[in-house]
Design the sequence.
C-alpha cells in the first residue's frame, strides 16, 4: 500500500516521521491501534491521514476545545471544502449543528472533533448511528485512566458510546503513559488486542543526578548555580513559601532570580515569565504552576529542591531542560522526610486515591535511592528497555559516572524483617527503628516492646542506617506500607520467603558529595556538529543582548542560539560570510550583522584563530521569479487569494513563500491584507505577544491565545512582525 502519495497530496510531506507510517498502515487496515509518542512526535497526522484517505467520517475525541479548533483549521487549510473537518460541541447553535449533520450525510466531512461530554448526547449518538463511520480516535488517552496524571471520569464511558454508534476500529493516542496506565486504557476501552506503537522516551542529552538534601541545601544550590553563571535554569519547590525563600537567598547572593507561583498576581507572573524568556533573569524559582506554557529551548538545568509526587511529573519537569538538544542538567535534591511530608498530605484523601498516591510515591523513592543507571530506571518505568552499556546517553547520570559503594547486609535485613514480624506488624518505620536501636518511648513501653529480647538488637548502627535499609527493602518489595492504617509496615510474601531462606543482599551506601568532586559538569556540542568556541559564544550572546535591547526586540529576533553556535564554528568576518551562517540570510546580516562580524574579526586577531575556508553556502530556496511576482503584487496591494490563485498555490504555500522572503531579509508589506482579517486591537495583541515571546513558534502562540486566532492569521502577523522588527 503506497501511503507516500496521499501524504504528499494532503500534507505536502515527502516522508513520514518516526513511527507514523506503521501507525497509519495499522488504521487503514482496520486494526485497533494504540500510540504513545512524546510531545512533538507528530501524533495528529497518524489519524488525520487515514481519515482523509478512507470512506466515511472519523470521530476524534479530544479534551480541549482550543486544540480541536486548531486542528480543524489546519485540516480545512489543506482542502477546498470547509466541511472536511468540523467540531461538535456546546459552542454550536442549532443552525451550526444542522450544517455539520448535512456535511456528514453528504460525505464531505472526514474528521469530526468532539468532546467526550458531547458524545454522550442521545441525539448525536442516534444521528451518528445512521452514518458511515471510518474509525474513532481518542486523543490524550491518558485521561481515561485513573492512574494517569489528568484523569477525566467522562472518558471512562467511551467504550459503551462507541459500541452504541458502530463496531469500528479505535485508535488511542497519548504523550505519556506507564505500563499500568496503558493496560488501564486498553482494558477500559475493551481493545486489549490493539496494535501498540511506542516512540522512545529517551532524552540522551539530559544528565540525571540525585544528591542527598543536606541542611546546607541553600548553599549547595547557590554553588551549583554559580558554577553555571549566565545559563538559564528552573528550580522547582513544592510550596509557595519555599519558592519565595529560595528566590530571595539567590538574589542576595548576586544570582539573577525571580519567583513564580499561583499566589502572585497575574501581572507579576507574566512579568517574571517574560524576564526569563527575554534573558533579563537567569533563574526562575517556581512551583509546578510554572512551565506549562513555556518552550524556552535553552534551559540548561532543572533543580528539584523538593522531590515531585510521581515519576511522570519528574519526567515532564526535567523534560523542560535542553529542548534544543544542547546541555541539560537535571539535579534532584532528596531527603526521605520530604516523602513522609507528602504522605502526610495524602492521609486526608479518600482511601482509593491514597493507594494510587502511595504507589506513585514509592516509584519516586525507588528512583532516588536506586544505584542502577537512572536512565534505565526511568525508561523502565515508562515500559521501555534501555541498554546501559551502549544506549544513547548511557553514561549520562551520576550512578554511571561514580557508582555507589555497596556492602553485604544479609544479616541486617534478617534482623529488620524479624523485628517487623515479632512486633506483630503494628508499627510504622520510626517505631521499628527505635525498637532495633533500643530507644524507649511511650508507645513502645505501652506495648511492653522494651522488655522483649530483640529490643536493641541493632544498637551498634545508627538510626539513619536502619532507616535507609528500610527504604531499600521497601523498593525490592520485602515490606509494604499499609494504607488503611497510615504508614504501618507489613511483611510481604516475598519478605516472608526471604526470612526463611536469606540470600545475599547488597545495601547501597549514600554518596558523599564534596566541593572538589564536581565532575558533573557536562557539555554537549552535538547541536552544531562540530565543537563551537564556548568563549566566543558567550561574547556573542552578550552582544546579542545589547543589540536586542537597542532595537527593543527579543534576543531570538536578532539571531537564535544555533546561529550563534554556527558563527563560533565558522568565524565569519564579512557580512557576506555571515549571511551564509545557519539561519541568518542577507537581510538579517545587513540589519544586525555589523557589530557581530566586527567582534568576531577582533576575536580572530587576538586569539590567532585559524578560520575554516569552506563556508557552506545556503540558498534561501525561493524561486526568484515567483519571489519577484509576490513582492510586486503585494506592493500593488493585490488580495492574497488572487496572488495565490494566479500562481496555482494554496494559501499555506503562499504564506510559506512569503516567510522565505522576509526570513532572508527582504521587506514585504502585507498590512493591507491583515487589515481585512484582523482589527487594530487584535493586531496589536498579537504583535505585543511576538515582542515578548521567547520563540516565534506558531504552536506556542496558538497555545498562548487558546485558539482565538488560527494558524494563518498568526503566520501573517509573524511576517508583519519580522518585517518591521527584524528586517
Sequence:
Amino acid at each position: 500500500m503506497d501511503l507516500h502519495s496521499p501524504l504528499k497530496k494532503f500534507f505536502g510531506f515527502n516522508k513520514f516521521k518516526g513511527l507514523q507510517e506503521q501507525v497509519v498502515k495499522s488504521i487503514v487496515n482496520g486494526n485497533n491501534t494504540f500510540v504513545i509518542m512524546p510531545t512533538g512526535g507528530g501524533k495528529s497526522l497518524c489519524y488525520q491521514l487515514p481519515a482523509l484517505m478512507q470512506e466515511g467520517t472519523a470521530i476524534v475525541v479530544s479534551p480541549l476545545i482550543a486544540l480541536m479548533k486548531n486542528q480543524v483549521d489546519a485540516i480545512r487549510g489543506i482542502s477546498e471544502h470547509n466541511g472536511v473537518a468540523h467540531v461538535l460541541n456546546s459552542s454550536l447553535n442549532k443552525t451550526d449543528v444542522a450544517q455539520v449533520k448535512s456535511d456528514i450525510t453528504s460525505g464531505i466531512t472526514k474528521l469530526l472533533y468532539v468532546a467526550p461530554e458531547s458524545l454522550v448526547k442521545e441525539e448525536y449518538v442516534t444521528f451518528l448511528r445512521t452514518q458511515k463511520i471510518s474509525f474513532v480516535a481518542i486523543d490524550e488517552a491518558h485521561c481515561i485512566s485513573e492512574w494517569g496524571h489528568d484523569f477525566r471520569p467522562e472518558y471512562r464511558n467511551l467504550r459503551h458510546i462507541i459500541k452504541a454508534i458502530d463496531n469500528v476500529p479505535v485508535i488511542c493516542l497519548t504523550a505519556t503513559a506507564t505500563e499500568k496506565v496503558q493496560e488501564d486504557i486498553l482494558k477500559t476501552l475493551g481493545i486489549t488486542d490493539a496494535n501498540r506503537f511506542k516512540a522512545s522516551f529517551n532524552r540522551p542529552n539530559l544528565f540525571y543526578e540525585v544528591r542527598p538534601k543536606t541542611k546546607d541545601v541553600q548553599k549547595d544550590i547557590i554553588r551549583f548555580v554559580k558554577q553555571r553563571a549566565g545559563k538559564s535554569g528552573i528550580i522547582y519547590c513544592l510550596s509557595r513559601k519555599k519558592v519565595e525563600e529560595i528566590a530571595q537567598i539567590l538574589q542576595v547572593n548576586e544570582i539573577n532570580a525571580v519567583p513564580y507561583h499561583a499566589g502572585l498576581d497575574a501581572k507579576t507572573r507574566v512579568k517574571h515569565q517574560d524576564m526569563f524568556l527575554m534573558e533579563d533573569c537567569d533563574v526562575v524559582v517556581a512551583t509546578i504552576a510554572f512551565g506549562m506554557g513555556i518552550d524556552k529551548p535553552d534551559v540548561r538545568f532543572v533543580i528539584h529542591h523538593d522531590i515531585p509526587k510521581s515519576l511522570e511529573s519528574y519526567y515532564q519537569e526535567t523534560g523542560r531542560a535542553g529542548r534544543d538538544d544542547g546541555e541539560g542538567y537535571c539535579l534532584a535534591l532528596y531527603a526521605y522526610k520530604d516523602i513522609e511530608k507528602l504522605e502526610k498530605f495524602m492521609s486526608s484523601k479518600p482511601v482509593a486515591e491514597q493507594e494510587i498516591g502511595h504507589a506513585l510515591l514509592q516509584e519516586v523513592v525507588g528512583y532516588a535511592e536506586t544505584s542502577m543507571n537512572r536512565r534505565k530506571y526511568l525508561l523502565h518505568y515508562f515500559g521501555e528497555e534501555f541498554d546501559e552499556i551502549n544506549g544513547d546517553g548511557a553514561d549520562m547520570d551520576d550512578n554511571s559516572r561514580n557508582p555507589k559503594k555497596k556492602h553485604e547486609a544479609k544479616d541486617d535485613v534478617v534482623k529488620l524483617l524479624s523485628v517487623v514480624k515479632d512486633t506483630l506488624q503494628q508499627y510504622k518505620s520510626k517505631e521499628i527503628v527505635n525498637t532495633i536501636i533500643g530507644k524507649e518511648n511511650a508507645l513502645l513501653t505501652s506495648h511492653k516492646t522494651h522488655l522483649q529480647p530483640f529490643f536493641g538488637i541493632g544498637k551498634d548502627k545508627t538510626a539513619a542506617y536502619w532507616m535507609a535499609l528500610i527504604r531499600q527493602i521497601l523498593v525490592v518489595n520485602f515490606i509494604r506500607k499499609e494504607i488503611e492504617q497510615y504508614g504501618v509496615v507489613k511483611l510481604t510474601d516475598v519478605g516472608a520467603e526471604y526470612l526463611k531462606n536469606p540470600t545475599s543482599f547488597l545495601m547501597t551506601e549514600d554518596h558523599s558529595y564534596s566541593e572538589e568532586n564536581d565532575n558533573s559538569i557536562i557539555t554537549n556540542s552535538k547541536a552544531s556538529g562540530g565543537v563551537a568556541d564556548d568563549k566566543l559564544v558567550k561574547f556573542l550572546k552578550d552582544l546579542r543582548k545589547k543589540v536586542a535591547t537597542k532595537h527593543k526586540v527579543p534576543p531570538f529576533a536578532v539571531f537564535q542560539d544555533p546561529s550563534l553556535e554556527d558563527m563560533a564554528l565558522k568565524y565569519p568576518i564579512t557580512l557576506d560570510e555571515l549571511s551564509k551562517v545557519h539561519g541568518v540570510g542577507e537581510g538579517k546580516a545587513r540589519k544586525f550583522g555589523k557589530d557581530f562580524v566586527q567582534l568576531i574579526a577582533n576575536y580572530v586577531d587576538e586569539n590567532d584563530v585559524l578560520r575554516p575556508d569552506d563556508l557552506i553556502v545556503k540558498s534561501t530556496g525561493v524561486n526568484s521569479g515567483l519571489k519577484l511576482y509576490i513582492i510586486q503584487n503585494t506592493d500593488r496591494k493585490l488580495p492574497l487569494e488572487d496572488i495565490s490563485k494566479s500562481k496555482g498555490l494554496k494559501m499555506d504555500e503562499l504564506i510559506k513563500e512569503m516567510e522565505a522572503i522576509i526570513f532572508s531579509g527582504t521587506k514585504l508589506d502585507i498590512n493591507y491584507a491583515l487589515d481585512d482579517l484582523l482589527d487594530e486591537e487584535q493586531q496589536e495583541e498579537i504583535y505585543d505577544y511576538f515582542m515578548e515571546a521567547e520563540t516565534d513558534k506558531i504552536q506556542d502562540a496558538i497555545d498562548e491565545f487558546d485558539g482565538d486566532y488560527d494558524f494563518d492569521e498568526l503566520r501573517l502577523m509573524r511576517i508583519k512582525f519580522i518585517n518591521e522588527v527584524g528586517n
In short: The two ends are 47 Å apart (CA to CA).
